[in-house]
Every structure is written in structure tokens, then in C-alpha cells.
Design goal:
Rossmann fold, alpha/beta, disordered C terminus, seven-stranded parallel sheet, 7 strands, about 250 residues
Amino acid sequence: MCETCGCGDPDIVPIEIQESILAVNDHQAEHNREHFVRDRVLAINLMGSPGSGKTALLEATAVALGGEHRLTALSGDLATDNDAERLRAAGIPSLSITTGSACHLDAKMVHHALHHAPWDESDLLFIENVGNLVCPAVYDLGQQANVVALAVTEGEDKPLKYPVMFSKADLVLLTKVDLLPHLPGISVERIAAALAETMPEAAMIPVSALTGEGMGAWIEWLEAQRLETERLSALRVAAIGPPIVAGGHMKV
């Protein structure tokens, strides 16, 4: 059980307390979002099951971008620094957020990590959430978009079994599609149909971090989101003026 959100144990965390926790989180998330928009950084909350290929996807994304944009990553994990180490080895400045018993990241954890990562020197900030298809969907981190990595090896019914996660997703990346020839019982069409039942606006891109399939479409989607961040930042500057920089760094 997650000791932070009390998932699955309503006797320990009553509804009214849980709502209060989320209210505090949402306030912090708005603060984070203001920073991201101010500094023109596209923040993506990347969610998915353990082993769905989130870290491999980020490694492949860095390769596909070819240095066109600067990336930073925050990697949530219960106990290790493994994912952040992998991303640093791939040339992505990365910081691990070790959550202990918490099965998700929250806005306060992200805000604390922002003090220790060069996120404001980047164009794209990927927040790689803890591997879980339940709790991460509930917590706003201040991101512009939610992306869910769903591996073909997980089966066709995950969107129906975990509807909250997929109902909050802006995009689903169907990962490890290079394995489809070895999975004769898996149908991409049936996965797409399940997503259509759970996502308000179903959007799925089949990708393979191994072969590069679908990475072009993924990069195009990211570019569209990045341009939207630029637009929001321009509106903010027009409304309240440019940010004040002290000592070469933004205050978080």
C-alpha cells in the first residue's frame, strides 16, 4: 500500500483527508506549471507499468532528436537510481527522485527536485513517474501533458482494467511493437479499441525504441506540444512581463 495516498485503504485515509492532500498537491502543481511556462520548458509526465519501456523510450527520444532540443529528466523510483543513471549515460541530464514507500510522484517531490536539476536550461523536461498504472494518474505535477507507455507485452485489456490512467492520458505510446511478430495473440486494433473506450480523445502512436519505428511521429507530437508551451509563455510575458533573473538562475 502507498502510505502517502492510502490507495486501497479507505479506513486509514478517509475521503475528506485524501481530498485535502490532493488540494495541497494541486496548489503546488500550479506553482510548478507557472515555472515551466515562464521558462518555456515543455514538461511531460511519462507514466506506465514497470517494464513498459519508459526509460528506453527516453533514450531513443534523445537519439531521435539528434541534439535539436535540450532534454532533462526526473526519474521516480521507490529504491534505486538505476533509471537516472541510464539516462545520464545516454547524455540526458537526469536526477532520481527516490520515493521510498510512495507508489507515485507528487508535485512537492517534483518541486524539490527542480532545485537540483538543470531543468530551466532545457526545452523538454521528462518526469518519468514511478512504474504504476494506478496512483500516478491522480497526482498533477504541473506538467503540460500526460503520456502513458503501454507495452504490447502487457495485453490488450489494460486500458479497460485501469481506466483512470488512460482517461487522463493525452497520448499513449504503444511500446515494443518490434515484438508483435512474436505475439500472435495481440492485436493493435483491439488495443486501439480499448483506448477509444477510455480516452476522451484517443491518441496512440506505436513505437519501438529498438528499431526506431514510430519515433518520427512521436517527435512531431512533442514539437506540437513544445510550440504550445512557447505560445503560453508568450501570453504570460505579454500579461505580466518577463521573469527576473538573479545571479544567472531562476528562483524556483
